[in-house]
Structure formats: C-alpha cells, structure tokens
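Quick review question:
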C-alpha cells in the first residue's frame, strides 16, 4: 500500500497495479477502482494504469462511460503505434460500439 501511494512514478504504478489485481481477485472492485483512479490522476502518463482501470470499469463494474473516459484520458500520453496505443484504440472502438448499442435499446 505504501509503495502505491509513493509519488515516484513507475514503481508506484507497478505496486498499485499489483494491489489492484489482488483487490479484484478478492472481488473488492470498488476498492480496486478507487486505487486505480487515484493512480491515473497522479500518473496520467502511465497507460498501463489506464488500461487496467478501463478493463475493471468495463467488465467488472459495467461502467462503459467511465471506461471510455479512462481510455480517452490515456490516449494523449501514449506514443503512436505502440502496443498500448493499439490496445487503447481497439478498446475505445469497442466501448463506443457497446455504448451505441445500449442507446439503441433505451426508450
């Protein structure tokens, strides 16, 4: 926990990702989301945090809009054509499709 709260960039992000994974395995999805949201706010340049948060929001918490916001916040911080850029763009397209489908079913 202390390493995830440290302001020192990459080690803090890695510790936070490991802690969020453990929280998710224990089905503490809200706690994992709060941890990842704080990390993403403190370290917006780390796309791995945004990807983990978007996955959690989309698949565990069913918050498609929140997942899309996490992806959109991370895209400016990744280098073009990197693995993270490709992942985030695919994820964004899928989220937009899912949100469009959801809007079509709403009365």
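Suggested answer, residue by residue:
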């Amino acid at each position: 926990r202390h390493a995830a709260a440290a302001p020192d960039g990459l080690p803090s992000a890695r510790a936070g990702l490991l802690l969020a994974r453990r929280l998710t395995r224990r089905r503490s999805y809200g706690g994992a989301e709060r941890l990842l949201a704080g990390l993403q706010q403190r370290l917006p340049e780390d796309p791995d945090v945004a990807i983990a948060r978007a996955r959690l929001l989309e698949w565990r918490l069913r918050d498609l809009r929140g997942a899309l916001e996490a992806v959109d916040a991370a895209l400016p911080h990744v280098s073009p054509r990197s693995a993270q850029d490709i992942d985030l763009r695919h994820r964004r397209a899928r989220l937009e499709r899912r949100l469009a489908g959801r809007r079509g079913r709403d009365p």
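Why it works: The chain has one domain: 2-105. The longest helix spans residues 83-105.
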